[in-house]
Amino acid sequence: MHKEILESGRYPEASFTADRVRGQLISAGQSHLEFHGVFRIHGEDHELTLPADVVESGDDIGATVHFAIPYVKWGMKNPSNFVLRVDDHVDMEVKATVHMRR
User: Fold this and answer.
1) Topology of the domain covering 2-99
2) What is the DSSP string of 51-85?
3) Tens of pLDDT along the chain (102 residues)?
4) Global pTM?
5) Which of 69, 101, 102, 67 is nearest to 88 (CA)?
6) I need a surface site. Which of 15, 70, 74, 83 has the fewest CB within 10 A?
7) CA 81 – CA 87 distance, rounded (Å)
């Protein structure tokens, strides 16, 4: 996947840059937010909205994001052949925790 499809040697990074957020962060509880922005992968930009479940607990804010990367639609090779069949997208889950200094 890294060498043939993602070409990680040529495109070593993937990034998401949010330009707006929809929803409201609830202090000391769970919130659902949507981050809209640009996902850059394989040298190309793709507009994307990422749904996030966010929990604030004390000085920590945790977020879990689930989304699909339609890599074939975005111009990357489909590795399927007559022996191997794979989906045309990859399901992703990203978890992050931020510790706030107060």
Assistant:
1) Lipocalin (2.40.128)
2) EEEEEEETTEEEEEEEEEE-TTTTTPPP---SS--
3) 778 788 889 999 999 999 999 999 887 789 999 999 999 999 999 999 999 999 988 888 999 999 999 999 998 988 888 898 888 888 999 999 999 876
4) 0.81
5) 69
6) 83
7) 12
Based on its alpha-carbon atoms, the radius of gyration of the chain, rounded to whole angstroms, reads 17
Return the sign of the alpha-carbon dihedral for residues 42, 44, 45, 49: negative
Cα–Cα dist 93/68, whole Å: 9
- Both structure tokens of 5: 């499809």
Please give the C-alpha separations between residue 43 and each of 30, 49, 52, 77, in angstroms, as whole numbers. Answer: 35, 19, 25, 14
